[in-house]
Write a structure and sequence with these properties.
The chain is an all-alpha fold and 49 residues long. 18% of the residues lie in helices and 0% in strands. The chain is built from one helix and no strands. It is elongated and about 45 Å long. It starts with 8 loop residues before the first helix and ends in a 32-residue tail after the last helix. The mean pLDDT is 84.
Length: 49
C-alpha cells in the first residue's frame, strides 16, 4: 500500500528528524522524578471554508 503525502509534509518530517528537546520547550526534563507523558498532534488537510 502506498500513500501520497501532501507537499507540506516533507519539510516537517525533515525538521522532526533532527529536532531536539530544546526545540520544543524551555524547561529541561528533571534528572529524577517526573512522569511518563505524551503529546498527540493531529495534522491534516481540509478544504477552505
Amino acid at each position: 500500500m502506498s500513500i501520497d503525502l501532501p507537499a507540506w509534509w516533507y519539510p516537517l518530517l525533515e525538521r522532526a528528524r533532527h529536532a531536539r528537546a530544546e526545540d520544543f520547550t524551555r524547561l529541561r526534563t528533571p534528572a529524577t522524578g517526573g512522569r511518563p507523558s505524551a503529546v498527540l498532534v493531529l495534522l491534516g488537510e481540509e478544504e477552505p471554508g
